[in-house]
Design a protein that fits this description.
325 residues; mainly alpha; Dna Ligase, domain 1; 3 domains; two-stranded antiparallel sheet; 14 helices
Amino acid sequence: MSPSTGAGTPFVLEVPEHPSLPDVTELLVARGALASPRLFRAYVALLHPGFELIPGEHLLSDRSSARDLALRLGHSASRASQRVTLPEGLNSVQVGQRLERAEVCSLAALRRAVTDGALLRELGIGGPSAEGYLFPASYGLLVDSDAREVVRVLAAETRKRLQKADAAHPARRDELKAQFGFGELEILTLASMIEKEARLDEERPLIASVFFNRLRDPDFRPARMLQSDPTASYGCVIAAERIPSCASFHGSVTPALLRDPANPYNTYRHAGLPPGPIANPGDASIEAVFSPARSDFLYFVAKGAGRHAFSRTFAEHREAFETPH
């Protein structure tokens, strides 16, 4: 079956409850995704006598063949799969953009799925979303998938990686709980901050040590303030409409953003960890939480080429900050 004359643009088609094949065919024609409606209907009738249209949202492509469209609209297990690679440190919006480009599910569908209360309860995720549980790896995923099923797959991989860290450090979870009140969500939250701050794997344990030192050092001021720029940025990614300082946010952290207490993810104005992960951390950042470096550092500043200068006192930190790269 020859493809349509489309340019290969993904689009979302909402199939109504109790759909009829002629009605859906008209929708596909109107979208420019079907070169021959008659052949499409014949394909479905002759080769798929038990074919049923699945109601709901479908992510399709205007370049798909009639066969591919039918397989997607029926959520057939025979439909194509895509190899999708998710690098470390992406947030859920960026993950959704990659999945949409691969025609796995739409960005809008993923954003709904990661905050779906029923799904979060099913997966045992206690935070406001499944952010942090979308593990960075390569996956073979079916095109036009239910976004909730995609979240299930990625969250299952996250749990596997946490179990691996548990096996390598069998007493660490109990230590984190006793010393800092950390559970699984808090571990992933801190790992996500390390992921966004670090560029080199060898520095991740040191950055972890700084955050732990700030949480437990009674003399550190402001008390228990983790002061991480990426956390404030994340607030503008997911809740810009509720945060006044995000009105002028274009990707770069500003002093106004760091002063704004309306941003719940602003760790310059709110002590302790943010409400949840700010990205999806990889193995190295999770490992840094389980096995941080032993240090008395309380500060770090970027010095170029992915490296940081680490300091014990604010005076040392200020000197490192003012010293040219």
